[in-house]
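Why this split exists: single-chain examples teach little about how molecules sit against one another. For that reason, every record in the complexes split bundles all components of an assembly together and asks for one structure covering all of them. Below is a record exactly as it appears in the raw files.
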Amino acid sequence: MTANSVPKDCILANHSAMNAAMSKTPRKKDKESRTLPKAPTGIQGLDEITGGGFPRGRPTLVCGSAGAGKTLLAMEFLVRGATEYNEPGVFMAFEETAPELTQNVRSLGFDLDELVKQKKLLIDYVRIERSEIDETGDYDLEGLFIRLGSALNAIGAKRVVLDTIENLFAGLQNQGILRAELRRLFRWLKDRGVSAIITAERGEGALTRHGLEEYVSDCVILLDHRVTDQISTRRLRIVKYRGTAHGTNEYPFLIDEDGFSVLPVTSLGLQHEVSEERVSSGIPRLDTMLGGEGFYRGTTILVSGTAGTGKTSLAAHFVEAACRRGERCLYFSFEESPGQMVRNMRSIGLNLDQWTKRNLLQFHSSRATFYGLEMHLAIIHKIVQEFEPKVVVIDPVGSLIQAGNRRDAHTMLIRLIDFLKLRGITALLTNLTSAGDALEKTNVEISSIVDSWLLVRDTELNGERNRALYVLKSRGMAHSNQLREFLLTAQGIDLLDVYVGPEGVLTGSSRLSQKARENAALLERQQEAERKGRERERKRELLEARIAALRKEFEIDQEEAEADSAQEVLRQKVIAQDREAMARSRHADRLRDANVTKGRRSQ
Amino acid sequence: MKKSARSEPRALSLQEIAEKGEPAPNEIWELRLYVAGQTPRSIAAFANLKKICEEHLAGRYNIEVVDLLKHPQLAAGDQILAIPTLVRKLPQPLRKIVGDLRDTERALVGLQLRPAAPEK
């Protein structure tokens, strides 16, 4: 039996020797941190912030107040070890019995019974009943060592959980012995080379109630469950991790149906890759305004404006366009339910339902006040990781202030934006500018970290409100500086040119009347031209008529002239005849030969 | 405490034992001493136990010594953590005394062979 090998004589007498041995624990320098062997926890996010998991072959202390999730973390460490890393584990429970534990973690999808059957997990319930124990004289905890040792050997365990070993303090009176034995236990665990988790209750002003951090000094994890403004958030912090560079922040974590997940969101930087690819905004004229092609993929777009200016409709168009390209979209709504969104967008001609049915679009609606900020972030992370969308819409981001304060919301959004950028996801955030606030300002102060900023506002003129849109900024592209009137029609969003009149920008009915005036002027000019045309035509006709008349006159003259000349010939003839006749009657002898002869003959 | 009751009608209440200061006659005491190997402490514990029993329970006791090094699986049954541990299986209720029993007075109190001292 391996337990046999524990040096028994160093229990009390060699206390100081033991201390010396403990302090010799190797302190690795940062350079070696990459080589420090780790036992991966298999818990999402935790392995990232610990740089690969808990220290292999060493004990890790997990402390936290009641209900912080210590037991679950420890149990998941064992279950993941058994199922994913082929490292069987022993769970030594000082608080809950095996059936209780099995039942408690069943909701997380862990089937302990099955693991126990496969000899990958062993649950040993240790019951300490103070009322039936008396102490007299010296003792040690060899019984515990033997139990643990035989459990480890039974399944060849590589991982151990002691939950919560502090219960020993309640069961045994002699603190001196207990502390010495715990020290020996942790040493013994190290010697056995098992990766152990020791859970402990949070103490007043100390990490643990009984100062266990004094013994387990390689890695200390603190779980916290904090309620601020009636909203609770779970957080995890690595207090200490010897020989490893680790994240030092408080990381929010979730316990849900998939178990534990930690969100290493604060560890993001600005190393994301940039894309040259452009994505359409879903509104052709808006794309034209954005250098002709739309937004850059993977950037963050902010649409801000006062209430009812069509921010959600813009977002819906963007989503519609993405879905049409076959990209997956996630829509987080803090104001409208999915059904409401689908119905409302139908009124502007967008059928979003078809995309949800094809699993290209997912809506996630929740009230901002429903969880804390961290939880929102955590949930968004989780869903994004599961769904792997290309486009994420958060509508509206300003609501998140309700779940925390302004500064926290700001930090959270930066973390979220970094996270989305890192994954190359194009994000569209809407933000409600409340009346009275400066337009070019967001209440979460993210305007400086977004890449494109569209501003929708309404202009009040002639007793009506009309929407106008402009591109306030769009990094890396030549964007239009013009204001566009923004219309919500049954066929979707339409952008129109804005008329600039003497009173300023004309929209709505002013635009229409201006258009009407222009049309009237145009008509007038057209009519004038037509009238002139007709006049010319008439003049021409007149001239032609005149020409015709003259021609007729000329013909008459000609006819007369011809008639005159004919008469003249006739007259000449007649005269000649008359003369002949006269001559005949006179019996003139000097007739012309022919005539005389002729006349003679005929006679 | 909630040990499955082996039918034995003569079990005495705590008060009775305390009042009498000594066990009821004719009752056989079943004692089990858990040790881990032949360490000086377990030998001392056994010697101390033997002495107490001879003085107070002469002829009415059985001592079973369990060496967990030989039978580690037995540790779980009686929820043994500390070594040495003396378990009084009978008479009920179950009692456990951890330690080498060198403080006879406290051992007697623990075994309920003597009422607890007033200051305790």
